[in-house]
Amino acid sequence: MDQPQQDRPQQDQPQQDPSYCPAPAAPAARVPGPPYADCLECGRPTEYGVATPGVVLCPVCEWQDAQRTACSG
Predict the structure, then answer these.
(1) Is the pLDDT of residue 72 over 80?
(2) Is the full-model pTM beyond 0.90?
């Protein structure tokens, strides 16, 4: 005889294992106005707020850092 729907094991749904690596953090958004954080390389004001976590660079230092990492190899 047929068993009720709730007594059947859920075979149709895949098991959801937690991810081994957590998802990367969302990139920090630019803020519309002051107070801006200072660049860690040159000390100029950046486009990011003071409360932005992580390494904060001005647009010039960001570009230079991206070039260094892209051409290393």
Answers:
(1) no
(2) no
